[in-house]
Structures are given as C-alpha cells and as structure tokens.
Design a protein that fits this description.
6-stranded mixed beta sheet, alpha/beta, 29% helix, binds fe (ii) ion, Purple Acid Phosphatase, chain A, domain 2, 290 residues
Amino acid sequence: MRILHFGDIHFWRLRPDWDFYYPKRFLGLANLALRRRHKFPPHLAWRAARAIVEEEADLVVFSGDLSTMSLEAEFRDAAEAFAPLYEKWGDRLVVIPGNHDRYTPCSVRSQRYEKHFPHGAFPEGERVVVREFGDGLAVVGVDASRPFKVRSNGLFDAALEEELDARLGALAGEGRRVVLVGHFPYAYPAGVEAAWDHKMLRDEAFAALVARHRPAVYLHGHKHIRWALRDARTPDTACINCGAAGMRSEDVRMQAGWVSFDLGADGAVGGIEFAHLVEGAGVGREMVKC
Ligand SMILES: [Fe+2]
Ligand SMILES: [Fe+2]
C-alpha cells in the first residue's frame, strides 16, 4: 500500500486573540509579524493541499501543526483546505494535532482543533487513537502536544507512556502492522540538533517504547526538514519526517512538500519519495533510501 505523509502546513492569521495575556500569544504574534509570515506564505499551504489531492495514495497521514497560534480563523482555513482531501480519502485521511494546535490553555479548553477537525479528535480523555483498517493495518496516533508558556516542547509523560504501551501491546497480540504517528521526532540525523526548548520531553522513554513494540514506521514532523532514517536504538522502525507542507526555502528538503512510501504486507518500507513544490509551478521529486 502507498502512504502519503504530510504535516506542518501552518495556516496563519495576523491577529490577536482574547487570551492575549498568555506569554506565547504576544511573543508568537511578534514572531509571526516579523519573521514567520515570510517563511510561510499562505499561497504555498493552499498549493500544497491542492497538489496532494492530485496524488495517488491508499492512506494519507497528517502529523500536526495545522495552525500557527490555534486561532479560530486558522483552523477554519485549514478545514477548508482539507475538505477536498476528506472528500477523496474519507476515513483513510488520518490527522493528529501538533504543538501549534495546542497553543494556549484557552484554545485547548475551547476545543478549537476538535471543532474544526472532528475526524481528527481523540476519544474523550484519551491521548492515543487507534484506527484499524481491514487489511491488517493499524494507524496509531499519539498526542504529546500541550501548551507551554513560552517554549515549543512536547511532553511524553508517564501516563501517556502507559496508555501508548497498552494500546501497542494489544495490537501486537492481534499481529497487526502498525504505523505510529506523532508530532515530535525522537531521533535526528547527524548534524541536526534537538533543541532543548523545541524537543519532546522524555523522548528517550518514547524511543524505548518504540524499541519494545517495533512499529513498521514512525511518522512525525515538527522539525521542518524532510528526512528518513533508522535509529540505532530502534532499527526495525523507519522514522520519517515529512518536513513542512507550507514553508518556503531554498533547500528542497525544507521547501513545502510531503513524503510518500510503500508499506508491504510484511511491514517493509520502500519506494520512499520526497516531493516539494517547485517555485512557480510543478512538483520536484527525489527517491531516498532508509
Ligand atoms: Fe511546525
Ligand atoms: Fe511543531
């Protein structure tokens, strides 16, 4: 089966929200006004969504960061851009939130993400969602995103670890192929740093859990660079970072794009293709190994 993976599309609106007293609100707004809006030109996000709907895939996964500051208008834009994708793939489009979709306590409490992406909502009180497909495949989404006052971390706390451990354990008993989806990396290529204020806290516990359950693939984003690697701690799992779907860059692996790959019946991962939007028109493609 062919899987298309994208994330970090980051729709944005330059406006304050009523919980402006939350530190990240005004820091985020200043950063957006000065820097981020040039890196994430809205036409690229819309173009990425239009290009992806033209692709052939059996399953499509979005690994978080629909929005920039969890604003109502940002989620509305994202929902509009995703409507043709839901129309084409229905339940075979799996969406999870990223840290930007859990930006402030207020935006989490008011369930903005869930309101605009009801198919991407997790069951009440749970942070792991399992979507089972008829062909022996289970997609497991994990939500380690929560608001931090200033930083952009995720948190893989002990309760989430226990929840994920139990769900993956049950699936192993059924002999399912597992595609694990989170927002944050736990492994990085040489030369790419896991910044202390940007990484998933307790990511070593996450790596240990992946080593125990050996999903075929771990799909994530957050760090806006496409990569595919196998970490020495988890050699049975291909770690794929889809890069940002809405970012402009001279570097093709950072330029707006996505990843697609084949997942065999035995869980083998192959045919990995990195795609990016070429400035002006067209899609550039690169085959990579993992
Ligand atoms: Fe992001
Ligand atoms: Fe992120």
